[in-house]
TrEMBL record:
Ranges where the PPM-type phosphatase domain occurs: 2-244
InterPro entries: PP2C (IPR015655), PPM-type-like_dom_sf (IPR036457), PPM-type_phosphatase-like_dom (IPR001932)
SUPFAM superfamilies noted in UniProt: PP2C-like (SSF81606)
Organism: Solibacillus faecavium
Name used for this protein in its record: Stp1/IreP family PP2C-type Ser/Thr phosphatase
Amino acid sequence: MNFTVESDIGLKRKINEDRAAFFERPDHFKLAILADGMGGHNAGDVASEMAITEMHRLFKLVDAEDFASKQLKLDWLRNAVSHINQKIYQYSLTHENCQGMGTTMIAALLDENECLISHVGDSRVYHFADEEVKLVTRDHSYVNILLENGEISEEEALNHPQKNFILKALGTEISIEPDFYELTLSNEAYLLICSDGLSNKLTTTEMATIITPQISIEEKGKKLVQLANDRGGEDNISLILMTTVQEV
């Protein structure tokens, strides 16, 4: 599997509160993690860094037997997210300058072409395959609730004054229940994990226009970030782009 990771501060922010990373074990299991520290909260960068670091530590330590079935992998993801949530929450209680901090988190566990995804917040996963684009995740946001209930249109959602109001994030409450998704990646598929600094600026058509041409995956990642910055770059911009395509 080819991949690239990008994390850019953008054009307006003084601190990059995003973190993104891709890890691979000797036994072929892979883990892609993206965390977007809560904007407007204290120490969002601390929360996102804790999420990535602790998830990586747990991934390195887990026995291969605990990944022997889909249910076992789901159990591991659920327990890992719960542990990290409590760790961030307790840290915020004991460090005054970090009170109220939180972070989104996408964790994608890959076993060959099988992918299990844990999701908290409004970071997103997109699946590109067979000339179609699918938004895999469902935002945990106030605006998305309004949209799903038919109270606002997709156009109104784009510029809603409470667009950044997140209903669920790691570290803001003592317990958390993430959403889970399952994907099987074909031999011509791309998987894009990104923070809202990217998804708020690009349409899926624009993403596909960059992702599908015959350029390197590294170039694709950089072009996605550049376009988000060209559109204003008000937020941090982070992504993990993975593909089963054998690029030259």
